[in-house]
């Protein structure tokens, strides 16, 4: 974490009235006294500006283990199932698309159904996306010109937690959606079993994450311009809980993150582990029903 940092108000309600919530190394989290949103304050400058993702983060997003996992057929199975149920066709913009894996899977599974575009601030992953035949728009999403009411769906898969001003991104998404267009948001769940059990030990409490949502605070963030179509809690990785519990609050390197993603992806693809997968799915559904799974997912409709 660099010494430079950006002081900020609450990213949900905009107030400057917060109390200390948690500290992990140099990372300090605050909780808004008004709306209970938890957020990094101050925010590390390289993550607040997005500079990290175009420079140091490239080694992670383009590592062989990460690419192999992201482009595996099982990688986005939950997101694809949810997306397809609500949006059977049309123009789709994936914000923070990285190497383009979600859009690639969408094109492969449902050829001819969607007109696809990905955007990101990170250049080299976009180069890779283009090499897989995906159209991309480069640069800061907030500064790009797409034309009004252009898209049937805009997706933010694991993006809003990285943003200094997530509300601005949702406002931009609203402006480029067609009437009744859909917005899909996935973020880590600050009230998940993992977060409750591990606290500061949790590997996803780290400088890249500037915002830490619960169902209540995410609902407050998205509720100003959109109506909620569906809200759910999903994903569960017990290996993360076990490793982080044993490891204490030590930093988990990008190499270790990619290796675990590769490992869990191989487990999902192994037919010999089908009985274990059935038990895992039952555990995930149970945690999801209790809003204790690792992530929150909300489907929004433009009002």
How would you describe what is shown here?
- With 303 residues, the chain is of the alpha/beta class.
- It has a single domain (50-192, 204-302), classed as Vaccinia Virus protein VP39 (Rossmann fold), CATH 3.40.50.
- Helix content is 38%, strand content 24%.
- The protein has 13 helices and 13 strands.
- The protein has helices spanning 45-49, 51-54, 58-61, 64-70, 77-86, 101-109, 123-131, 166-176, 193-198, 215-222, 238-247, 254-269, 274-289; strands spanning 5-6, 18-24, 27-32, 38-40, 43-44, 90-95, 114-120, 136-138, 151-157, 177-188, 211-212, 226-234, 295-302.
- The longest helix has 16 residues, at 254-269.
- The radius of gyration is 18 Å and the shape is globular.
- The N and C termini lie far apart (40 Å).
- The model has no long low-confidence stretch (mean pLDDT 93).
Low-confidence residue ranges: none
Number of strands: 13
Instruction: Supply the number of structural domains.
Output: 1
The CATH architecture can be named as 3-Layer(aba) Sandwich
What share of residues are in beta strands? Answer: 15-25%
What is the terminal separation in angstroms?
40 Å
Shape: globular
